[in-house]
TrEMBL record:
Domain of life assignment: Bacteria
Pfam families listed in its UniProt record: GDPD
PROSITE patterns from the UniProt entry: GP_PDE
Protein name: Glycerophosphodiester phosphodiesterase
The species this protein was found in: Ornithinibacillus salinisoli
PANTHER family in UniProt: GLYCEROPHOSPHODIESTER PHOSPHODIESTERASE, CYTOPLASMIC (PTHR46211:SF1), GLYCEROPHOSPHORYL DIESTER PHOSPHODIESTERASE (PTHR46211)
Domain GP-PDE: 2-239
InterPro entries membership: GP_PDE_dom (IPR030395), PLC-like_Pdiesterase_TIM-brl (IPR017946)
Amino acid sequence: MTKIIAHRGSAGTHPENTMAAFREAEHVGADGIELDVHLTKDGKLAVIHDETVNRTTNGKGHVKDFTMSELHRLDAGSSFSTEFPYEKIPELTEVLTWLEQTGLTVNIELKNVFYLDYPGIEEKVLEELERFDLKSRAIISSFNHLGLYRMRKLDPMIDIAILFSEKLYEPWKYAESLGATSLHPHVYSMTDEMIHTSEQQNYPVRPFTINDEMHMERLIHAGCSAIITDYPERAIAVKERLRSEDSWGR
C-alpha cells in the first residue's frame, strides 16, 4: 500500500529540515523522510531547503557563503515556533547517523538548480550514503535533471527520481532516457491513468506535497507507491481509514 514520506520531516508541525521534524516523522510512523541539501562554503552538505538562510533562521545570506560551523550557530527553530529555540541546520552526516538506527527511507533532494551549480554535490552525497551503507534506503531527486543524469553515471543502482511540475507526455519514458527510476510529480501533473500506467511500467510515483485529505485519498486510490507530505500523521490516518473501509466493503 502507499507509503508516507515526511516532507522536510514533519514540516507542518515542526521546523522543517531539522532533527526535531525528522524525529517526529519517525514517531508518528512515517515510512521515510525527505530532505534538501546545499553545499556550504567549506564543502559540507547542509540540510536546508532555500538557497538562503533568511526564511527559516535568524540569519541572513546564502548558504554557500557560510561554513557549516557558522550555520550551526543559527537558530533554525524559533521562526517556526518559540517551542523550538534550539533547533539547528543539520549537516547531512548528522541526519544519516540518526537514520541508520531507524528503518526509514531517505529522499535526498539536490538543490543545485537555477543559478546554483555546486560542483561535486552528487559525488559528496553518494560518498555519505556509502559511508553509512544507506544507498539501498535512499532516493535521489532533483528538478535539475542534468544533475540526475550525472548521478546515474556515478552509480548504476541507486533510486533516482525526477521532480517535475509540468504535464509531461509519458513521463516514464523521459525518466528512462535519463536513467531515472521513479517519478516525483506535482499533484496536478499526472492523471490517475498516468499514475496507473507509470506504476505498471515499474516507475514508482511519489507526488509532492500532498497535505489535503482529498488529494491523499485520490492518490492512495490511484495506487501511488508513496505520497510526500508535510503532515505524515494525517496521511497515515487517511490511509488507515481507507484500509478499514476497504475491509468493511469486502
